[in-house]
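Minutes, project check-in
Item: structure for the 267-residue chain
Input as provided by the requester:
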Amino acid sequence: MAHEANPADKLLCLSSVSKSFGPVQVLRDIGFEVRAGEVICLLGHSGSGKTTLLRCVNGLADFQRGRIRFSGRSPRTLLGSDEPDYRELCEKDFAAYRTRIGMVFQRFNLFSHLSALDNVAIAPRKVLGLSKPNAAARARELLALVGLDAKAGLYPKQLSGGQQQRVAIARALAMEPEIILFDEPTSALDPELVGEVLGTMRKLATQGVTMLVATHEMSFAREVATRVLFLQNGSIIEDETPEEFFTRPKHEPTQRFLARMHKSWQN
């Protein structure tokens, strides 16, 4: 299970985060906070910056300006920062930072030569130093949590896409992270498999797991999210409760986006 924290704790704070790929700016002065136990959904058109934002939070991508703090610490030096006490974390500290943030990708990224059990157990053994029996026992508990205890001995090619993604969620949980980032976790799945992954994520939400989720699944955002952030051209233009976002969006791009999504539901 993910690390338990006081619901009032600020786990993650972003301030003025900006990133460009050459002349193309993909994130513009992004700033928001995530508290323990929150489920925040990032919505927006493809290319709006959701994936890049998650990659910056997890340290998979650099950014040119701004600051990201996780429980009061920053992952690395940010270019353009003029704060005198701001220093780059050493490699060891940065690795420790990364272990506290889980990541679930679009394309599962499981090791094809390892069973579901070993895919979940390998990081706790290699990174956290758990013994092989303890890591295996932990992996079995997490596979049971995501409804795959009977599939522990199977390899990724023997599992459906939905099952592979649930193994990926169990793998992220195995490191006992304080927050899990989800990058469009259902986008690579056939429609009939989407529900089983969203059901697992709903279960985690009821258990207090803190999640930052980039998604196009409007029903999940409406029913499960504590807050919805809408990105447009790399900027956050809405930061609201689901009730406010879906019934009283403040900006025209958001209104157009929701109208298009509503039309697609009707077709």
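Outcome recorded: Residues 26 and 234 are 5 Å apart (CA to CA).
No further action items on this chain.
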